[in-house]
Design a protein that fits this description.
Order of helices and strands: EEEHEHEHEHEEEE
Radius of gyration: 15 Å
CATH architecture: 3-Layer(aba) Sandwich
CATH superfamily: L-asparaginase, N-terminal domain
CATH class: Alpha Beta
Strand order of the largest sheet: 4-1-5-6-7-8
Number of strands: 10
Shape: globular
Helix content: 25-40%
Largest sheet: 6 strands, mixed
Number of domains: 1
């Protein structure tokens, strides 16, 4: 049985709508709900809820926490999936790329452009793609979203197409 560790940081994928206040915010992780809708035979999942923030509000210290948790769980996991807000996902990915030169397992970033609770969300697709990638990729640091697999360094959010691309310089 394969073991995957999820590290959650909040971001758009996990935003929930509060009807009383009319606010869309990161209040708690919804990852377990997404996972409960998927058929995942022969898979053990550990979920580490680390931060509940929009990625624009993440600090360098928050990114260091993600790095620390990744290091702590890397040797006890067949893969790590980091659920992250898309606006600064590339910053955290670049940090892990610099600080973990030889990961022992695939480390995959994913997220969503629209919250899971929205009808036209890309959340379930991206989580499903990341889970599949986690089972087939070699150790490295990746972004898996929108039917794309990109390797660090050089990953960037494309605000025009609302997905991730690879900087041609890399």
């Amino acid at each position: 049985m394969e073991h995957i560790t999820f590290i959650t940081t909040g971001g758009t994928i996990e935003k929930t709508y509060d009807e009383r206040t009319g606010i869309l915010a990161n209040q708690h992780s919804i990852l377990s709900h997404i996972l409960s809708t998927l058929r995942l035979p022969d898979l053990s999942v550990d979920q580490r809820n680390v931060i509940f923030k929009d990625s624009l509000d993440m600090t360098d210290e928050d990114r260091r926490i993600v790095l620390q948790i990744t290091r702590e769980t890397m040797n006890n996991s067949d893969a790590i999936i980091i659920v992250h807000g898309t606006d600064t996902l590339a910053l955290t990915g670049e940090l892990l790329y610099r600080e973990i030169p030889r990961p022992s397992c695939p480390i995959i970033f994913t997220g969503a452009m629209r919250p899971y609770e929205f009808r036209d969300s890309d959340a379930a697709q991206n989580i499903t793609e990341a889970l599949f990638a986690a089972r087939v990729l070699d150790p490295g640091i990746y972004v898996v979203m929108h039917n794309r697999l990109l390797t660090f360094p050089g990953v960037q959010k494309d605000h025009r197409t609302m997905t991730f691309t690879k900087d041609p310089a890399f």
